[in-house]
């Protein structure tokens, strides 16, 4: 149902926790998950970049579970990082590897100046199948 490909003709992406290409069959139900942040259902907010990244991935997991999906069924993510640096890339890559394991989706990381709220430093959205 999901095919992940990393051609040797493209840069190695596995160490960063994503695949260069992800294909799904046309008969799958596709789910689009809105950007997930480092906040909690009760309104509390995770403090600091690494905690926001961890909570954002947990919120992504919760969103996927709500529709009967999971990390292994994600085919594409887009990640937005405020104040992007190599140190922040390492944190994102570690969380992405841990969250997806061998089921690495296609991924785009976009450095941004600001997200919707002043406290926000990280956001991740996803496309998944059920």
Automatic annotation (TrEMBL):
- State the Pfam families in the record: Ribonuc_L-PSP
Q: Where is the signal peptide?
A: none
Kindly list the GO CC terms recorded for this protein.
Answer: cytosol
**What molecular function terms (GO) are annotated for this protein?**
deaminase activity
Record family assignment: Belongs to the RutC family.
PANTHER family tied to this protein: 2-IMINOBUTANOATE/2-IMINOPROPANOATE DEAMINASE RIDA (PTHR11803), PROTEIN HMF1-RELATED (PTHR11803:SF58)
Q: What is this protein called?
A: Enamine deaminase RidA
Annotated source species: Litoreibacter roseus
Lineage per the UniProt record:
Bacteria, Pseudomonadati, Pseudomonadota, Alphaproteobacteria, Rhodobacterales
